[in-house]
């Protein structure tokens, strides 16, 4: 049987159309698959951002108005004042060591930072306290869940007791090493007073935290 050229051309055209439609459908499927993947990535990103913004950082500005928030803010302010006062006293040459007299004498020409061990101890304690208190306040402000967890943990109580004792010992040590005629006396004395005041506030915070534990977890133990 002999096939006409027209029939052969039509058959070839039909096969070409089928091949073209298959390629188009394959491209369409690839495009749809790519769009689905992009939409899936966007959906995961939105869920992650929503989880971060709403669940992890469920803002808690009310913490700054509570007694704990106010006390933490006072810890930060007083620690900053201790750093400023002690730093000023040490920079003024209050504790410049004299190798000849084997004692600490004033030197108005001193342009460097040098502290007696008691002043250095107070400076280190205040620097550590301001970092810890700032981190504590930031965590409690950024997350209400974090505030509840921190307040319910023994970490906060231990933190208040430890820094209360550190400020107490540092203030007593600094006061016992002061001399009225030395350079920077008033600044160092102010630093010691602020340190002792901060110690009192830390002990108040510790009592507050202990009462919270007693009220909430003591009742649970009784049940």
From TrEMBL:
MARVEL domain: residues covered: 63-214
InterPro entries assigned to the protein according to its UniProt record, in alphabetical order: Marvel, MARVEL-CKLF_proteins
Stretch list, region Disordered: 1-39
Transmembrane segments: 73-100, 120-142, 154-176, 188-213
Record-level GO cellular component terms: membrane
Membrane protein topology class: Multi-pass membrane protein
The UniProt record lists the keyword Zinc: no
Source organism: Oedothorax gibbosus
Keywords: Membrane, Transmembrane, Transmembrane helix
Name by which UniProt lists this protein: MARVEL domain-containing protein
Subcellular location, record wording: Membrane
């Amino acid at each position: 049987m002999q096939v006409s050229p027209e029939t052969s051309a039509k058959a070839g055209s039909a096969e070409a159309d089928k091949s073209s439609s298959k390629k188009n459908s394959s491209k369409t499927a690839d495009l749809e698959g790519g769009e689905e993947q992009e939409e899936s990535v966007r959906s995961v990103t939105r869920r992650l951002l929503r989880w971060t913004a709403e669940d992890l950082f469920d803002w808690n500005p009310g913490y700054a108005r509570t007694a704990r928030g106010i006390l933490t803010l006072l810890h930060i302010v007083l620690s900053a004042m201790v750093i400023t006062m002690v730093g000023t006293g040490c920079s003024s040459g209050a504790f410049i060591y004299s190798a000849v007299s084997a004692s600490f004498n004033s030197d108005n020409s001193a342009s460097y930072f040098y502290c007696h061990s008691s002043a250095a101890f107070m400076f280190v304690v205040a620097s550590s306290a301001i970092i810890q208190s700032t981190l504590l306040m930031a965590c409690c402000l950024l997350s209400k869940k974090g505030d509840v967890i921190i307040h319910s943990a023994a970490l906060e109580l231990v933190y208040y007791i430890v820094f209360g004792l550190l400020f107490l010992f540092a203030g007593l040590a600094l006061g016992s090493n002061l001399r009225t005629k030395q350079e920077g006396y008033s600044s160092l004395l102010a630093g010691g007073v602020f340190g002792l005041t901060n110690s009192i506030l830390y002990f108040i915070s510790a009592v507050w935290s202990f009462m919270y534990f007693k009220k909430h977890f003591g009742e649970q133990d009784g049940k």
